[in-house]
Description:
Blueprint: H1 2-19, H2 31-45, E1 50-59, E2 63-71, E3 78-85, E4 88-96, H3 118-136, E5 142-149, E6 160-166, E7 174-179, E8 184-188
Antiparallel strand pairs: 1-2, 1-5, 2-3, 3-4, 5-6, 6-7, 7-8
Helix pairs in contact: 2-3
Amino acid sequence: MKNIFTATLFVFSFLLLISCGSTGSGQEATAAGFSEIENQIKQRFGEKAFYTDLSISYNKSIGNIIGVTVTENPASLQLEQWSQAQDKWTQKADITIEVPAGMKAEDYMFQLNQNLNLKKLGELVEQSKAKLTKEKSIKNPKLHIASIQFPDNGDISKAEYLVILQPENGGTSFSFRYTLAGELVKMGY
């Protein structure tokens, strides 16, 4: 009987530990939280994957929702659109892209690396929250959407981080656009 109790306690403790682990949907909108999300994306799609779209949105009921459009082989012109909600990845679509003659598909895509990364995006979410609290006296603003905006013309110098926040109980959305260096381009609502 003691062995059954010990085994049951072990299994319960293990399940509790797994459920409290670091998952994409439970990460905070911070540099550390987004860095962990980036690690999970890289584990899922590979360190060298190429993206045309990457966003993290927050829903109070289910947590973070991660969306990516990704390929391992840009030359194939084939991408897949995936989303993760409640820690379950689901493929949403297969996408075929066209590129102008003489151009490479990877010129219109980005990789998660030193120039574009989710840790920086998380830092900008934190910075945006502080700015909104200070300038608009909004306490506890919540993440609505954070994304990497990559231009259709492939000019990486025009890529931006976008952060959209809302008051804790909903209402007006406030948007913040930043350069890759983290400089505020525009704040709007």
